[in-house]
Known about the structure:
elongated
Amino acid sequence: MSPPRRSTLPARLAAAVLALSAAAALAPPAHAIDEQSELSTQSHKTLSDYFADLESDSDPDRLYAARVLRGELSRALRTEATAREGSLASLDARATLLELETRLPLGCRRGLQKLNSVAPCADILRMLGTKEALPELQTVLSVEKRKWVRKHLESAIAELGS
């Protein structure tokens, strides 16, 4: 007969304790997780926040807001054009469009007077079909020197003028 094997329980227990302590040492503290979730909640902006930023004195905030709102408008227009009528996507796009059509033209007409938001605001006014902004677009075009911004203005004027 063979001799009885010694129990490996103490060795297994030591390995488990070592693995558990290593995992605990590498895991972030609980308060760090709470801070991260608070930061992600705080950084989520609504359309209203972007409308406020569009009127802001901060050039980077204003430019970012104009770009985000232009993207939201483009997405809503595309969804409304392609989604089945009466579908949830179509209704959601229509609700977004109503808010954008109501609040964006005035903010973008003011944005034409700010140096860094001219191009996205010209695009937004063109996509919305805001013919009332045509004189302002022409005035800004007459003084604008940047070629790439002039292209946005010319495109908006051509589409709104026809």
